[in-house]
Amino acid sequence: MKSATLELFFFNKNYTPYKVRLANELEVGVKRLFLEDLVAFVNKGVDNNLSVQRLDKNTNDKAVLVMDIDEVDRAATLLNLLEKEYSDIIYFSGEEHDFRRVKGIVAKFNYGDGGHNKNCYVIKALSGTQALSEKGSWELRGEKLEPFSASVGIRIPDGNEVLVVDDGKNGWQLVAINRSKFERLFQFDVGVHALAPVKADELAAAYNLSLAEGLDLTEMLKEKKGLVKKLDNAEPGAVSQEKIMDFADEMQLPLMLSEDGKIIIADESDLSMLVNLVDENYYISATTGKRYEVKGKKLLDDRADDAVEQ
Asked: What does the CA dihedral 39, 40, 42, 45 come to, rounded to 10 degrees?
């Protein structure tokens, strides 16, 4: 990897990449920041029994996560543009583009492996709002304060965040080294994505569902953090499907059954209604008859028990 060639890219909040021209005198420092520090981290991790795990409900909070790139939609979009549409990527210009919209920086390393050239990508988050601009910035040269001479001043963060590599066996793999930065960088909630398949299976096992063509229960839940959290607190199956649908009628909710008695999930709205019914988030006032969707609740029995204990 020491002989690997280096290329840099910025990408914006839409995950559109831009090529970045790099001065020759910066290459050694950039390689250290993006590659050598990463290799040192891995070597140190081997000595200290670093935990590396696949994403599932039992994933250790401190473990380095490894995922297929397709599990992280925004990362897959970025990789596809870098790999498949490289020739269409334009260069970033401090005069023509707004650096405040930049979300991250990618270092692409091309290296030889068994006679074949391969790419790997090291990705770090950048905050465009923290960059120094020509307006309102100065630079100190010796004892003299002078006008800021660059279009934008950038500080590349230390530490290791995300690695994307083709392992030659399972295809492109994303390695999330710093979990919190990875989550912010790609708007990806690790907890939700780990629980979504489990909760989808529980919901499908408890009720007869009919999903519209092209819909996948797990994928729908991955995009709805709130629904996953509600299902994690609920007990799918504790209330029968018949009672669920009877109460949906009483609440005048447009949740429907198919001709063969399955609950129709045609879109996210139907799924939200079902989850809220399972988690008992609908309420009809006994005094006014008004119907409510409840945002928070506490069992009165629990409150009574607390009062007795006090």
From this structure: 180
Pseudo-torsion of CA 16, 97, 27, 155, nearest 10°? Answer: -100
Residue 149, CB-side half-sphere exposure with 13 Å CA sphere = 5
Which are the contacts of 282, defined by CB distance < 8 A and separation ≥ 6?
Answer: 247, 251, 253, 276, 291, 292, 293, 294
Domains in the chain: boundaries: 5-186, 192-298
Query: In this structure, what token pair is assigned to residue 109?
Result: 């390393």
Residue keyed to tokens 């129709």 = 264
Nearest-5° angle of CA 297, CA 300, CA 301? 130
**Per-residue pLDDT for the chain (310 aa), expressed as one digit of tens each?**
557 889 999 999 999 999 999 988 888 888 888 887 777 777 666 556 677 888 877 777 778 889 999 999 999 999 999 999 999 999 998 778 888 889 999 999 988 765 577 889 999 998 766 677 767 777 778 877 777 777 777 787 777 789 999 877 778 999 999 899 999 999 999 989 999 999 999 999 999 999 999 999 999 999 999 999 999 989 999 999 999 999 999 999 999 999 999 999 999 999 999 999 999 999 999 899 899 988 888 777 755 455 444 4
Measured between alpha carbons, how far is 231 from 23 in angstroms, rounded to an integer?
52
Cα 42 to Cα 64: distance, rounded to the nearest angstrom: 11
Nearest CA to 222 among 248, 188, 269? 188
Q: How far apart are CA 241 and CA 262, in angstroms?
A: 9
